[in-house]
Amino acid sequence: MQSYSTQPSKESGEPVIHDVFESNTGTWQYIVADHSTLNAIIIDPVLDYDPSTQTISTHSADALMTLAKKNNYMVDMILETHAHADHITAASYLQSRLAQDQGFKPRIGIGKRIGQVQDTFAQRYGVPPEEYHDVYDILFDDDEVFKIGDLSAKAIHLPGHTPDHLGYKIGGNVFCGDSLFHVDLGTARCDFPGGSANSLYNSGRKLLELADNVKIWTGHDYPPAGREKPVSWMSVQDHKQNNAHIKEGITEQDFVARRTERDAKLAAPRLLHQSLQMNIRAGRLPKTTDVGFRMLHLPLKLNGVEW
Q1: Which of 15, 47, 8, 45 is closest to 30 using CA atoms?
Q2: What is the pLDDT of residues 175-206, one digit of tens each?
Q3: How far apart are CA 190 and CA 199, in angstroms?
Q4: Contact 78, 42 (CB under 8 A)
Q5: Is the CATH code 3.60.15.10 the one for domain 2-279?
Q6: Cα 250–chain centre separation
Q7: Which residues are in coiled coils (predicted)?
């Protein structure tokens, strides 16, 4: 686990930010806190999953709780940028454990369009409605303003990677989820149901219209050869000048062509099916069957052979 934190002055109006990297899925997780009140949120937490043994564990989530406790934070909310297709969310687990530790239950939040994503994948995987309806406590409207202690935050709709995708702007920071990556990687894929390269271009331009010194904190990093360490944020100016897919001068037509060509060559995420089934449930476990199993469905690939 890699962790880094910012420490603003008390007069700055900026949050304390702890970025924690989960290397198995290349995911950046964040604890964002108001240093005056010690109220905090957690963004995009990871539940560990071993596909070779079908085993869930909680090392990454427990490390987030330890970090929050070490800093005396009270976690008010656990926020998702979208329904992830590459890792399982620890939101429900953290909500349950933090409720025990803190004496109150943090709310789980996501964008208001999550319903269409839930319905799409519930139908695909046979998830019963009672296991994914009303599992989120907060459904953010576009540009909805909310509080983290005394700090003001805003939910920003950033569709493209998924239709429900949100970013969270807190002070001079935007937690953009799977919209923009490190400048040498560019942007996220758009080939999931409801994804749109045109929408992602417009979301990227929305981010690049912010002040040059705004920090854009990404949801993932996959360092290529020549760059050893994962990087959690880059400035708007960095992206304007150097983002491989969406820097200044790249037209929407060019972006869509490049993004479409790139997506056609990408393999499906390793934990695609497990992640989507759990994440439309906000990380809640599937109900136990009559014979005592909790089941996830995995499609068979027949490689063109039928009998």
Answers
A1: 45
A2: 999 999 999 999 999 999 999 999 999 999 99
A3: 9
A4: yes
A5: yes
A6: 26
A7: none
